[in-house]
Structures are given as C-alpha cells and as structure tokens.
Amino acid sequence: MFKKILIANRGEIACRVIKTARRMGIKTVAVYSEADRNAVHVEMADEAVLIGPAPAAQSYLIAEKIIEAAKKTGAEAIHPGYGFLSENAGFAEALKKEGIAFIGPNIEAIKAMGDKIESKKAAAEARVSTVPGYLGVIESPEQAITIANDIGYPVMIKASAGGGGKGMRIARSADEVREGFLTSTAEAKSSFGDDRVFIEKFVENPRHIEIQVLGDKHGNVVYVFERECSIQRRNQKVIEEAPSPFLDEATRKAMGEQAVALSKAVNYESAGTVEFIVDPEKNFYFLEMNTRLQVEHPVTEMITGLDLVELMIRVAYGEKLPFKQEDLKINGWAVESRVYAEDPFRKFLPSIGRLVKYRPPVEGPRLNGTIVRNDTGTEEGGEISMFYDPMIAKLVTWGPTREAAIDAQAAALDAFYIDGIEHNIPFLSALMQHPRWREGNLSTGFIAEEYPDGFKHREPEGEEREVLVAVAAWIDHINNIRRRHISGQLPHAVGLRLGAARIVQFGKVEQPVVLAGDYKSGTTVTFTDAEGNPQKTVAFETHWWFGKPVWHGKVDGKEVSVQVRVIPNGFDLSYNGVRTKAYVYTNREAELTALMPEKKVADTSKKLLCPMPGLVISISVEEGQEVKEGEQLAIVEAMKMQNVLKAERDVTVTKLRAKPGDSLAVDAVIMEFA
C-alpha cells in the first residue's frame, strides 16, 4: 500500500481524504494557497506545501506546482478530490510521466468522459440513452442562437469541461441564449480554464438521478445504486439523498446496467458517477459522467457501509474490488444538505467573512437509531474566502426509513449554529418541512417552482409559534434569575420575586404568557388572552443555560432545538426554517415600547448596490443612458459564479461609481439613477 499520498485540493474534501488515509495508516501531504495558510486541511495533514497566491488559477489549478510538491515530499500518489484538476487528463498524464500514481481513472477514460461533448459521443456509441443536442464546439452567440432555434426551446447551455453547476444556463429565447452563452463561457474559462460550451434540449420537469460506479484495473465494474439530486438552485445541487424515492427496482437495474456498460466501454477504474435526467414516465437520458469522486458521495457510503475514498486508493494501488454486484445491498436511507455561505433572504447571494461561531451538531449515532455525519473543512474562526466555492459543510443523516432520515436532518439543521456570515441553514430547514419534499414529488425545478419570488422570512404559526413563544419567555425568565444573582446588579436581591407575566412579541403579534417554576424544578409557560385568562400551558424539560447558542430540550415531551441570539429586549430565534425576532416585555415595558417612534430605513431605490463582495467584471451602461426594466446593468463575480445585475424598473443612469476590475464590498454603490 502507498505510504504517503498528496491531496491536490482544499476544504472539506481534502479533510475527508485525510481521514480515510489516516485510518489506513497512510501519511498525507496537503497543498495550500496563501488564502488557506491556516485552513483545517493544512493542520490535519502530516505535511503541507504552499503552492501560490489565493486565486485558484495561480495555485490549485497549476499542475506543475502540485507535482513539484509531491516530488519534494516523496508522495507516491495524488488524490485530486473534486473540482480543480480532478478531471484534467493533462494532469494525469504529467503524473504518469513522473511515476506518481493518480488516484482516479485511467487517462483514456478521463479524456472520453471528462469532456462533456466527447462523453455524449461515447455514450451514443455504447447505446446509452442520450438527450438530443449539438455536440460541436460553438464559436459565437449568433451560432448558439441558430443551434438553439433548430433544437427548439428550452435549451441548456453547458460548459464542456464543467461541473458543479458552473457554466450552465437554461435559455427559453434567443436573448437568453445570447446572454447565457456569454456568461457560461466566462464562468467556464474562470473555473476550468476551458471556455467551450455545447447546447442540448432541456427536458421539462426532469429529475436528476445519478449512478455511482466503481471499477478496478482488472476489468471489474459495479454500480453502487443511485443518488437523487433533483433539489437544485441555478444547477447547483442543494440536497441529495440515497436511494431515490422515485425509482423502482427495474428502472434502478436498467440505469445501473447502462452506467456499467458505459464504464466498461472506456475501461473505467476508480470511483465515478454516471448522471441521468429522468422524466416523469421514468424514461432516462445520459447527462454526463464525472470521472472523480462526487461531492455527494457520503449518502452512498451511508446506505452501503462502503468507504469510497478507501476503495479509490486501493484500486489505484492495483487491488481488485472486494465484492461483486450481487454482494451490494441498500440499507436504510440517507439525506445530505449542502451548507453554503450565502444569504437565502437576499436571493442566495454569496456571503464571505469570518466564522465568528461555528457549532455543528454532534456527530454519531442517536438514541432513536439515526446517525449524524458532518463533512467540513472549516472551524470556528475560519475564513470563508471569495476565491473558492461557498460550501461550509455537508450535513448528512441516516435513518432506517426516508422519513426518519429527513426528521434527523431537520433536527440536525436546527442544532447547526453559525454566526459571522450569512448561510442557507434557514432555507435547508424550511425544505425539510416542505410537504412536497417529504412526499418525494421532486424535479430539478422544485426550488424555482416552490419559491418563485425567492425565499422570504415568514412569521411562525401553529406549533412553531407556540414553541418559539414558550422558549423566548423561558429564556427571559432564567436570564432574570441569573441577573438577580450577579453581585451588585440588583441590590437587596435576596427574596426578591420577579413578575411572572410577560408579553412575547413577533412583529405586530403579541402573546401574553405567565411563567411558573424555575430552571431547577422545571418551568411551565401558560398562554393567556389579553385579559389574562389561561388558554394553554406547556411544560419544559432542559439542561440549557444562558449563553449556549442552541437551546436543547423538550416542549410538552417533544425534542426541540432552537438557535438563540441575544438582541436588545429579546432574542433572535431559529427553528424549523423560521428565523424571527422575539421581544419579551413586562406589561409596563410593552406599553412604553408602543410609544417609541419607528426607525426609518434609508432610501436606496435610486442606487445599484453591490449585492455581495465581489469583482466587477463589466459595466453594461453609460452615464446618461436610459435603461428599461430587465436590461443588464453590470456583472459581478463572486465565488466563481457570475451574477448578472439587471434594472428592476425603467431608469436613467446619472453616475457610475465603479468600473470593471474593482473589488467591491457588499452594498457598495455601483451606479446611481434618476
């Protein structure tokens, strides 16, 4: 077995590979850019080598620097992770020349499958179902429009060397093809160093279902069942699960056998994924093959008990797969949520900065028979950089049934506490409660269909509201007890009893309550009407104490986790995808608060503000120009994604405050309007 391997990647996947290598007794070498000098993967590895400045194009994408680091440290093999150089045949060829093993497929398979255009040609030759499209290289927006008109709308524009949702656009008109071609080629060039794109028919209401395959150097190939990846936003996967709630055994077998046939056609070895789109009638079409480990591989590991990273390493060393197709079985269900540094309440715009607090849920088995796993590459105090993918962590839960896995995921998300940057946990939590998701009625258009106006704050209702009211009142109650015992804070506090009546306010809604008991003997919260007449009483069981970021306990016997952030006169609470401010007052405080004037919000309607920290790629207008609603104003790039900013109404540009090449902070003024 290899004695030392280098991981040519960063973040959570680098940490993931290091964990398996450590368990196998293999020494590891990390590489890092200047931005990642203090990253977790650097600390975890046995050795680490600096390979260049922060931009990936000057560090993680330079094969020569990776190879030099391997030779310098004596690494016998390189695991590329995903992204960066993982599907770069030139990199694999360079390693072969240097006598360094590549922990991935053979060069011919990478060439045939890693290029999206060539892979579709190979799939057609192997008699795998494919989507109608144009597989030649497209030179201009005009040619793209002509091709799209011939195929028929809608179409999908995709980067040939792409992956991870980069360089992909759906177009339903010639104008959208023109815009999509320009942004897709730019993203592809930035992310993969290859600006080629192709166009294919976009299948309406499809599911995205992929088959995990494993091959060795001895001609053995198996499929390790499927993953459902239909919950996507901007072609970027958000939630994955295994198995799919849609497939029957016959369809699963047919898809698996086609995936194996395609793999054998290119003598595939190592882990790989054959992706399909599946229509509502269970017709499936080859989408692409990823000749690498997938981001979402943990859900497959959870339902099979396999370690895909270990198998990749053993195959690269020349070992045979230790099982046959008939040995593989599905056990239970697994769900994965991708925790991203983005603001779901501001159209999912990227968020960068320091993780002031980072408290993931505890990993491992639960008493109810479920399991929690968190794959991450960051820690409290770590920096989320604008130079790389916005992923913070992959939260995975396993249960004996799909419902159990989803419930475990919902509970784990409620317990996942992050401060310092914006993140998508409220959105993920809301998805876990969505009836359509729980029914398994999915398509790649799920998010766009269910949240057409974006994800918005909602006021808590029903059981959610009762839990949050009771928790807010209880926290306020024990905080008063705590302060009563702080020396000098309340003179003559001995024997002092605080009033039990409180008013909990969410927005304009007020709920009077009365508390009884204390944190030692147990507390009850009684909901009353405006006259103080009792309506309902809830009881608490908890060992929580003021200062812990997540309130854990039971409310009327139900296990509950509520995130708590202290604000003046109350608490910012998160539960079940609801994030709301709860203000807790005595009756007199509520009377006085009602007399306070409301703070006016600054008018920014005549300015275009930068919605995220990023780089200005282009300004599409000039001073004095009249712009119609929906027309492009500027393009800002952040975290390898290009964001087109459009006019929200008819305006006249009066002043440009930024130019291409400027690095802007969030809410920086790009231009002003009349």
Automatic annotation (TrEMBL):
Under CDD domains, the record lists: biotinyl_domain
SUPFAM superfamilies documented for this protein: Glutathione synthetase ATP-binding domain-like, PreATP-grasp domain, Rudiment single hybrid motif, Single hybrid motif
Question: Reaction catalysed?
Answer: propanoyl-CoA + hydrogencarbonate + ATP = (S)-methylmalonyl-CoA + ADP + phosphate + H(+)
Residue ranges constituting the Lipoyl-binding domain according to the UniProt record = 598-674
Q: Which residues form the Biotin carboxylation domain?
A: 1-452
The EC class name is ligase
Q: Which cofactors are reported in the record for this sequence?
A: biotin
Q: Which residues form the ATP-grasp domain?
A: 120-317
Q: What is this protein called?
A: propionyl-CoA carboxylase
Query: One biological process GO term for this chain?
Result: lipid catabolic process
Pathway(s) served: Metabolic intermediate metabolism; propanoyl-CoA degradation; succinyl-CoA from propanoyl-CoA: step 1/3
Taxonomy-wise, where does this protein's organism fall, top ranks first? Answer: Bacteria, Pseudomonadati, Pseudomonadota, Alphaproteobacteria, Hyphomicrobiales
